[in-house]
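Entry 12.
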Amino acid sequence: MTVATNVIQVKHHQDPKKLIWADMEGWLDKIQPTGSDCVICVYERPKETAGGILMPETSSRVSEDKFQGVVGLIVKLGPNYGTHERALGLKPMPQVGDWVAFRTVDCVAFTLGNRSMRLLQGNFIRMILTSPDAII
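Predicted 3D structure (tokens):
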């Protein structure tokens, strides 16, 4: 993970959270994570930078977000999520709607609808982010 700089900031024409929630409509009720797992929708960066430069589809960052992305939005939690908070010292505890960072090796990857998803144990979340563009 790398801290993003202004040079590589992207331009959002629509709020990425709203896009993800719209794409998840009708899909989240078809799955139920177990234990303390959480379901994360991988953030796919827009193809236009804040300076107006269009990134080609073959750009490593654009094409790899689906497979190697390390930022996502928590969209669903398992029934025991948060029960290990005291034992593991996880504070603040990430919740549905939070942007988070994680390592790809800690996840189970799958597709739900047309979105790239990750199933991750809650204690493997590495950071809560204020913006999905905060790191790359």
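Annotation: The CA atoms of residues 1 and 136 lie 6 Å apart. The chain has three helices and six strands.
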